[in-house]
Amino acid sequence: MIMNTNLKLAVLMMAAMIIFSSCASIVSSSTYPLSIKTDPSEATVSITDSKGQEIFRGTTPANVNLKAGAGFFIKAEYQVKLSRAGYDDKIVPVTCTLDGWYFGNILIGGLLGMLIIDPATGAMWRIEQGFINETLNSSLVTTDPGMQILNIHQIPESWKEHLVEVE
Fold first, then answer.
1. Whose C-alpha in 16, 32, 42, 154 is 20 to 30 A from the C-alpha of 63?
2. Is 59 helix (H, G, I), strand (E, B) or coil?
3. What SS3 class is residue 114?
4. What is the pLDDT of residues 95-127, one digit of tens each?
């Protein structure tokens, strides 16, 4: 009798997990890590979402977690702006794609997972780009032969080995 009750409870729990779960929510994630590096380092990082709202500000190297969904059935999109004095700004787009596990709902999660849970949690989307590694271009190149006074932080690392100390 006890064995029969435990078996029924186990079957009931398995059925509930299948009915009330969704495949992408179980197998995947709704947030993804993004590692950001620049050459030179210590560049300012500003990440804005599709609405233009800044969601992160920091300096490189940086690690941030980004949501893959931006609303019900809406994928997230981001603009990562990298800037540093003496260098041209760079903007790197980060986009989401449909997660292949979302279609696992056909076999595992059913309509509830496909039409409600994964779209609401953002788990139906995936950020495949796990890192940004950009080299910033110097904005100091000029055709003017005149002298320029620069801060040590404004010149590229490759120039620093050629510097001579003046007393």
1. 154
2. strand
3. helix
4. 998 887 777 776 665 677 778 778 788 888 899
